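Backbones bend. Shown next:

***
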Amino acid sequence: MSVLLRKKMPNRPFETIAGFAAPWAVMAIFGFWFAAPVARACTTPVYRYAMYNWGSSPFVVCYLHRGEPDAQDEPVHQKLREASRSESAAANVVLEPIDLDQWKPEKLPPPVREVLQAHADGPLPTHVVLTPWGAELSAGRLDASAIASLIDSPMRKQLGGLLEQGNAAVLLWVPGKAEAENKRVEEAIKKTIAEAAAGNIPVASIDPGMPPMQGPGTEEAAEDAIAAANRLELATVKLDRTDKAEKWLVDSLMKIEPDLHEYVDEPMVFAVYGRGRSMEPYIGKGITVDNLCQLVAFLAGACSCMVKEQNPGVDLLFQWDWEATADQMAANDPTLNPMGFDYQEMPVDPAGDPVDIAEDTGTAKEAKSQDPAAEQALAAKPVETESALAAQPATAVVEEANAVAAPVTEEGSVQPIAATTARSESESLAKRQMWTLGAGAIVAAIAVLAAGFVVFRRRLEE
């Protein structure tokens, strides 16, 4: 394989079912296309969409044993369970005990079955660690210290922190043996980061066809939002492949493609984005400014496919609070609240205080509108009792509140007050976006998986 461009996707034995469902997948996608027009117009960059929506696939620790598990391994297993179930920072790892006296290897994907069978006749019990794409990461009995370094490391903490700061990606590079080549690679990375900072790499942004915001000062706000949406920040870190504290991370990176061990003397650059997802590396002479800018341009481009596994890259093992990181990124993401939606100016009284809708709804109290015509209309309105208000539908009360409290434009139309201002501040911004497209995505995914399973079974029977 050429070291200039590496586009080969790794083998994914856990994800083969969907590959048999092409005709059904097409129908499901077309159904979702017409059912969710918002998804068709998605202008969210890939790196943001990945952070908001793509959960991390788990690494699997298979515990091979015969009969009852060894009690000495229980503390290790408990540590794994606690890490995977942590509410604040869960690790994408699962424990899978396998009693070789009772297991059914024919039900496992062939690559996984071959890996486990290769260790079934060795010393037992033992742990076999598999990546989400089915590569064997290690085989041998793990202790508490090994589990701690498997789950977390200083470099992974640094990567998580850089992504939380809002960087689109972190260019993680592993130096080679030639010092001159390492200097060239380091300079190429610096130039790529500078190109992104200068705005020379296009970023998917707010749809220019969206209606502009209305109200005083909103033109400047719109310009600021567009500028923020097009701001692209990158970071870089250097990983020493001989660092013992990073052994698991280095081994995982070297397993992303089956032949990377052939290039251990060459420098490599991995782009880490989303929830700890790594792109396949550029190697040696393939590490150029043009290639790295193209890679970043893909991550900054509009996300056209919501299915994670149809995008390049693999998930690394992290113990990190990705929900908090996603919320941090979403809080400064104007693409989540396009211009003209989810934002309106609150009307104020002459003293500069916001109007209390609940206080003025349906009553003839003193009008707080700054518009004289609105005050006259309110003064002429008959007083309504609380019982009369209670008899009205809830929608009528809301509409009446908008008519009373909202300012009147020069054209005579009333500017309604956005109901979204009542949202709880603690509600996750990322989850609100997921709800927008989640229902359609779930329907499409179920259809694809169901059809794929049927075809998969038929082909096995053949």
In short: The first helix runs from residue 22 to 35. The longest strand covers residues 59-65. Confidence is low (pLDDT under 50) at residues 1-41, 208-212, 338-430.
